[in-house]
């Protein structure tokens, strides 16, 4: 399984939006549940959102309707649209393939006050 490739992180002001994308270059994508996690230095990695092979989604309690996870099986891509960002959303965000238990390298999201 090749490493997952993430993109879309960056610096945004509070209240702004970002879209993260994760491409799975090899292997089987369509049957794998996919997830986005985040980690703040010194804290445990936590689930942000998860989407199953049928498109059903679950979110961390802190999301509160602000984020949307989606997948494009033809492009082997899972995306995370994040709206109404707050400084508490600042973290490194990781993409995860459950089928292969593989992770991306992480992409930094920084939200300024």
The gist of it:
This protein has 113 residues and is mostly beta strands. Helices cover 0% and strands 49% of the residues.
Main sheet record: 7 strands, mixed
Which structural class is indicated by helix and strand composition?
A: mainly beta
Percentage of residues assigned to helices: under 10%
Mean pLDDT score: 95
How much is the radius of gyration in Å?
Answer: 13 Å
Strand runs, count? 11
Work out the helix count.
0
State the end-to-end CA separation.
Answer: 39 Å
For the structure shown, list the relevant keywords.
seven-stranded mixed β-sheet; mainly beta; globular; about 110 residues; 11 strands
Structural overview:
The protein is mainly β. Helices cover 0% and strands 49% of the residues. The protein is built from no helices and 11 strands. The chain has strands spanning 5-7, 10-13, 18-23, 34-39, 46-51, 57-59, 67-72, 77-82, 91-97, 102-103, 107-112. Strands 2, 4, 5, 6, 9, 10 and 11 form a 7-stranded mixed beta sheet that branches. The protein has a 4-stranded antiparallel beta sheet with strand order 1-3-8-7, with no helix packed on it. A hairpin with a 6-residue loop joins strand 4 and strand 5. The N and C termini lie far apart (39 Å). The mean pLDDT is 95.
